Amino acid sequence: MAEIAILHYHPGTSALHRLDPRFKVLLMVGYIAALFAGNWVHYLAVTILLTIASISAELYPNSFKRELKVFLFLAGIIFTSHFVASFQSGYETALQEGLFFAWRFLLIVWLGILFTTVTEPSELHAVLYWLLRPLPWVPAGRLAAHASLSIIIIPLLLDGAHEIREARKARGIDRCRNPIKRFRSIMNPLMEKLLMQIEELALALESRSFDESVLHSSLLFKGRDAVCTMLCLLPLIVLQIVYINF
Questions:
Q1: Mean pLDDT in runs of 10 for the chain (246 residues)?
Q2: Residues 6+ away with beta carbon under 8 Å from 125
Q3: Among 1, 9, 2, which residue's Cα sits nearest to residue 155?
């Protein structure tokens, strides 16, 4: 299976792709709240639900195995730090704390990857505008446009780093084993490339007489979106009620 570009939108016809973006944001907030408010049962439930959603959206771990290694490494650091910090409370407690925090980190990363995979940038802009519009004296259109353009920088950074790394490998100059030196050698051309892309984007917007007031796409409420969202949140709500009462 070919690798996908992480944190990019990938077109599809799954139920998640067709879901109203406002409900996507609601699901993401609800799942993150469940991770911080619950126990290992909530973690397991979120893992199962994310697995089903990822299969539906055709998002598999081997599709971004290069980035997966980085996230697993960061999860290992989180596990080690919490294990050492809690070791005085006993081995089992320290092990449980480390696993919980590492598991939570991976689930949040997984949730973010899934959200960006099934959500178009224009949909995200529409949701931000919809959320900010009721607030008085707030330039909703301008803030939503700025936030949408800022989010674009993240995939640009990842794509640029990947292109520079592949170009260095092709030229046989990527043999340095020191991670700090490798990072420094990539950062200079990466920042130069990023600034050039941002400048091109700014010139393109200026040449087209960019106006944030014309970007707002309409969001249509559909009953099936509410039903799908409730079905996805219902297991977590039931678990939370049981967790509070018992």
A1: 64 86 88 83 88 87 75 90 87 88 92 88 82 82 78 76 78 67 75 83 78 64 80 79 68
A2: 144, 145, 147, 148, 215, 216, 217
A3: 9
- Say how far apart CA 169 and CA 18 lie, in whole Å: 40
Give residue for tokens 């249509």: 220
Tell me the C-alpha distance between 63 and 169, whole Å. Answer: 21
Burial of residue 2, with CB atoms counted within 10 A of its CB: 0-12 exposed, 13-18 middle, 19 or more buried? exposed
Q: Please state the φ and ψ torsions of residue 137, each to the nearest 5 degrees.
A: 55, 25
Residue 102 to residues 29, 71, 86, 93, 96: CA-CA distances in angstroms? 19, 10, 14, 14, 10
Structure tokens at 211: 């106006």
Q: Please, are residues 153 and 159 in contact by the beta-carbon 8 Å criterion?
A: no
Domains of the chain, by residue range, sit at 1-119+218-246, 139-215
- Provide the residue type at 55 as one letter: I
CA distances (Å), origin 21, targets 88, 178, 224, 229: 45, 43, 13, 11
Distance CA 166, CA 172 (A): 10
CA 174 to CA 129: how far, in whole Å?
44
Place of tokens 């939108």: 9
Rounded Cα–Cα distance for residues 81 and 69 (Å): 18
Q: How far out from the chain centre does Cα 33 lie?
A: 15
Residue tagged 């640029």 (tokens): 160
Tell me which H or E stretch contains 224: helix 223-245
5's CB contacts (< 8 A; 6+ apart) are 155, 158, 159
